[in-house]
Design a protein that fits this description.
Blueprint (H helix, E strand, L loop, with lengths): L19 H13 L2 H17 L19 H12 L8 E2 L9 H11 L11 H14 L9 H10 L6 H17 L2 H11 L1 E3 L2 E2 H10 L8 H9 L14 H21 L6
Parallel strand pairs: 1-3
Antiparallel strand pairs: 2-3
Helix pairs in contact: 2-7, 4-10, 4-11, 6-7, 6-8, 10-11
C-alpha cells in the first residue's frame, strides 16, 4: 500500500501592520504632488471669476436708465421672507439730482466721501485713514469705501465680506467711474442707498422722516439724514440717540462752513 504523504502547510508570513504614522505619510506623499495643481486650478478659476466683471454688468446702460431694483433691495426682501415678514415692502421713489436739495448733496458727500469730486473711484487717503483708525481702536470702526464703491455694492453685490467680492467690486467701480459722470454716480447713489428698514433712496426717506420733498430739506435735516447712513437700521434721523445727535452736529458744522464758502461773494 502506498502511503499517502501528507503535505505540510507552512504558515503564510503575515504582512507587517502599517502604523498610523505610516498611513498618514503615505497619504501625504499622494496628495503633496497634487497640491500645486489644485492651487493652480483654484487660482485660474478665481481669476476667471473676477475677470468676467470686466464685461458684466452693462454699466453703460446706467447713463440714461434708472434701475428699478438693486441687489441690496433683493437681499432685504429675501431676509424678510426668511424672517416671516412677508408684508414688508420696499419704499422707493426716484428723484432727479436737480430736485434734491444741495444741503443733502453736500451733507452726504461730507459724511460719506469728502473727496468724491477729486478721486477716480478709490480714495487711497481715506483707506489709509480708516486702516489707522481700525488699528488704533482694535476693531473695524471705519470703512474707507467711496460713494462709487458703495453704489456698485448696492447695485450688484450682496453684503458678504470677502476678498473675492472686494475684487469684483473694484473692477466694476473702475468701469462705473470711466463710464459715468460724477453727477450721475451721485444721483444713482442717493436714489439707491438704504435709509431705514425698507426705505431706499432720498425720495422715500425725505417723505418718511420729514413729510417733504428732497428739494425742501434744511441743512439740519440733511445733516441728520447723512448721519445715519453708516447704520440705517439701527439709527434714524429723528432719533434722540446721542450718537446720532453728535454725528449730526459734526456734519452740520462742516456743512455750514461749506455753504458759506460756496455763497456768492465769498472769498472761498
Amino acid at each position: 500500500m502506498r502511503q499517502r504523504m501528507k503535505t505540510l502547510k507552512l504558515p503564510t508570513p503575515s504582512r507587517p501592520v502599517e502604523s498610523d504614522a505610516g498611513r498618514w505619510a503615505s497619504l501625504w506623499k499622494t496628495w503633496a504632488g497634487r497640491i500645486p495643481r489644485i492651487l493652480l486650478l483654484l487660482l485660474v478659476l478665481g481669476v476667471l471669476d473676477v475677470a468676467r466683471f470686466f464685461i458684466w454688468p452693462d454699466v453703460a446702460d446706467l447713463k440714461k436708465s434708472n434701475p428699478e431694483t438693486t441687489a441690496f433691495m433683493e437681499y432685504r426682501k429675501e431676509q424678510w421672507e426668511n424672517m416671516g415678514r412677508k408684508k414688508n415692502t420696499v419704499r422707493h421713489q426716484w428723484v432727479r439730482l436737480r430736485d434734491i436739495s444741495p444741503n443733502l448733496v453736500k451733507a452726504v458727500t461730507i459724511a460719506e466721501d469728502d473727496r468724491f469730486w477729486m478721486h477716480e473711484g478709490f480714495d487711497l487717503e481715506g483707506i489709509e485713514e480708516a486702516l489707522l483708525r481700525n488699528l488704533e481702536e482694535g476693531r473695524l470702526a471705519a470703512g474707507g469705501s467711496t460713494i462709487s464703491q458703495q453704489l456698485v455694492k448696492n447695485l450688484y453685490f450682496s453684503p458678504e465680506k470677502s476678498l473675492t467680492r472686494k475684487l469684483r467690486e473694484a473692477v466694476v467701480t473702475w468701469r462705473v467711474e470711466n463710464a459715468l459722470s460724477k453727477t450721475r454716480i451721485l444721483e444713482l447713489y442717493l436714489n439707491c442707498i438704504e435709509w431705514g428698514d425698507g426705505i431706499f433712496g432720498i425720495g422715500a426717506a425725505s417723505h418718511h422722516y420729514y413729510g417733504k420733498s428732497p428739494s425742501a430739506l434744511t441743512p439740519r435735516e440733511a445733516a441728520s439724514l447723512a448721519a445715519v447712513l453708516p447704520n440705517p437700521l439701527k439709527w434714524t434721523p429723528t432719533s434722540q440717540s446721542r450718537v446720532v445727535k453728535l454725528r449730526t452736529r459734526i456734519i452740520l458744522r462742516r456743512l455750514e462752513r461749506r455753504l458759506q464758502q460756496d455763497a456768492p461773494g465769498s472769498d472761498g
